[in-house]
Specification:
Elements (H helix, E strand, L loop, with lengths): L2 H8 L24 E11 L13 E10 H20 L8 H6 L9 H17 L2 E9 H6 L8 H19 L6 E7 L3 H15 L11 E6 L6 H18 L6 H6 L21 E4 L9
Parallel strand pairs: 1-4, 3-6, 4-5
Antiparallel strand pairs: 1-2, 2-3
Helix pairs in contact: 2-4, 6-7
Length: 290
């Protein structure tokens, strides 16, 4: 089978997908080519450094948004582009949670109702988009209290958990033998080099399963205007806030609970995701590891 045949058998260019419904993901046959049917976009919230902790946000969050490629291309990307056209008149705006929250740059809304309308629209897009969420929250205060003279890098700890859980998801979809790309945003030459080294180390067998993981990391410049990376940026902080202040109202997290990879499959969305699709590390003393 040549490359052209592989591509043609995996996705036709101009047909349309049937929606899986709220909280679900279209069930698909194992692709004929070498690539899986899924693409992963990654972002973070918080500082992964261990020297100085922000007392208001002493956590590091890593979020994996796992999209079926066809749904992503035909539904998610167009919906986000239309949203930008409606609010800005063009689709080149980069949606960044920090700037939206602080109302800087192009996100100077001018009034509370305008900002709320904007936030509601984004929340609706996230709610309507079918993706699987895998995330790890590193409690840096608790990690420091463990007493290690050289605390582990929170990013590397979270990355290991998320990649291992991603593999479990692909096993569920019978696509663990296919190549899956994991897209991360460029952070700088040194940081990207360290991340790639750790990514390769984990995939080469330095994981809980002691097996090779079929993932490739792809570094994307912010200017690439990736819809997937922007959505990953929007979901990371609500996860951290829920862990820090679970009693506080958090509409964004309420929507995300139906996205997490969970123990009961599609019939159990919104339940059974703690310590499954969402891991807190180090775990609370009352929590037993999976």
């Amino acid at each position: 089978m040549n490359r052209e045949q592989e591509v043609q058998q995996q996705f036709a260019l101009f047909d349309h997908e049937i929606d899986a419904g709220p909280g679900g993901m279209t069930e698909v046959a194992v692709p004929a080519g070498k690539f899986s049917n899924f693409i992963v976009y990654v972002d973070e919230s918080g500082d992964h450094g261990m020297q100085n902790l922000d007392p208001n946000y002493p956590v590091f969050v890593l979020a994996f948004c796992v999209f079926h490629k066809r749904h992503y291309a035909e539904r998610v990307v167009p919906s986000l582009q239309k949203f930008k056209f409606n609010h800005f008149g063009h689709d080149l705006v980069l949606l960044h949670e920090h700037e939206i929250r602080k109302e800087t740059g192009q996100f100077n809304f001018g009034s509370r109702p305008r900002k709320q309308s904007f936030i509601d629209g984004l929340t609706d897009i996230i709610d309507a988009s079918n993706f699987i969420l895998i995330s790890c929250v590193i409690d840096k205060e608790r990690l420091r209290r463990k007493g290690s003279p050289t605390p582990d890098n929170p990013y590397h700890l979270a990355l290991g958990f998320c990649l291992e859980t991603l593999y479990e998801f692909l096993m569920e979809k019978q696509q663990e033998s296919k190549r899956t790309h994991v897209v991360v945003e460029c952070r700088g030459k040194k940081e990207d080099g360290e991340l790639e080294l750790e990514f390769r180390r984990i995939c080469d067998g330095a994981n809980r399963k002691k097996i090779s993981l079929p993932f490739d990391v792809v570094f994307a410049d912010k200017r690439a205007n990736s819809a997937g990376l922007q959505l990953a940026d929007l979901v990371a902080r609500p996860i951290g806030l829920n862990v820090l202040r679970p009693e506080q109202g958090n509409r964004a997290f309420d929507v995300l609970t139906r996205k997490f990879f969970c123990s009961g499959g599609r019939q159990n969305v919104g339940k059974g995701f703690e310590n499954w699709g969402l891991k807190i590390y180090p775990p609370p003393e009352s929590e037993k590891p999976r």
